[in-house]
Design goal:
The chain has 224 residues and is mainly alpha-helical. It is built from ten helices and no strands. It has one domain.
């Protein structure tokens, strides 16, 4: 039994690899479908309706929660937090984690490239309410969401491996997962993105994250 496991490992076959491949392929296919809908402007009515429905709820507490979820994705903090986390891994002697985390930050560049391919305008008043913020680039996909899923999602993965204290590990992972979950709705509620922008970013971000997990596993095997 052990011999067969070693042989499988040497061939690159690992538990869950087939499932993750299917998820990556499915997410990529769904993104392509959304991209086609956006390019042909077939989802404009749906996006407007979703935004108007979400913006009907007027709650100061909800507004603060949405603002807090989006805050790490705006400059200057978006340019400070990622390198700080990467530096933390380096200072703790975890070179593999630092390299992999740097690759996760690359999702920001991926977002910029996809935005250039689409060129979709952002939501504008008076059609919807738009919270004033330092926005840049086009709308599809959401850079906030894509970066959060890839970078903070991968941070949660690393913490699940590297942090030994159960309470600290659970608290950190819960906070990061909550951030990833909330950032999508926050982008729509604040009027900075359409719902399909957010959905596309969750799809691409998930695929990117799963690829990163595989890369990190390979690096750990190689570097120890």
């Amino acid at each position: 039994m052990r011999s067969s496991r070693v042989t499988a490992s040497r061939k690159g076959v690992e538990p869950g690899s087939r499932a993750s491949t299917l998820v990556i392929a499915g997410a990529a296919a769904a993104f392509v479908g959304l991209f086609a809908l956006v390019k042909t402007n077939r989802c404009a009515v749906f996006d407007l309706e979703v935004t108007l429905r979400l913006q009907r709820y007027k709650s100061p507490r909800l507004a603060r929660l949405m603002a807090a979820a989006s805050w790490p994705g705006f400059p200057p903090q978006s340019r400070v937090i990622p390198p700080a986390i990467i530096g933390m891994w380096l200072l703790s002697g975890r070179r593999t984690a630092a390299v992999s985390q740097t690759l996760a930050w690359g999702a920001a560049g991926l977002s910029t490239g996809l935005k250039g391919m689409t060129g979709r305008p952002r939501p504008l008043p008076p059609a919807v309410e738009v919270l004033v913020a330092p926005l840049g680039g086009t709308s599809f996909p959401s850079g906030h969401v894509l970066t959060y899923v890839a970078f903070y999602g991968f941070t949660a993965h690393l913490i699940s491996i590297e942090v030994q204290d159960p309470l600290l590990r659970a608290t950190a992972i819960s906070g990061l997962v909550g951030l990833v979950v909330l950032v999508g709705p926050s982008r729509v509620v604040e009027g900075h993105h359409w719902a399909t922008d957010v959905a596309a970013s969750y799809l691409v971000g998930l695929a990117y994250l799963l690829v990163l997990v595989r890369i990190h596993r390979r690096l750990r095997e190689r570097w120890g």
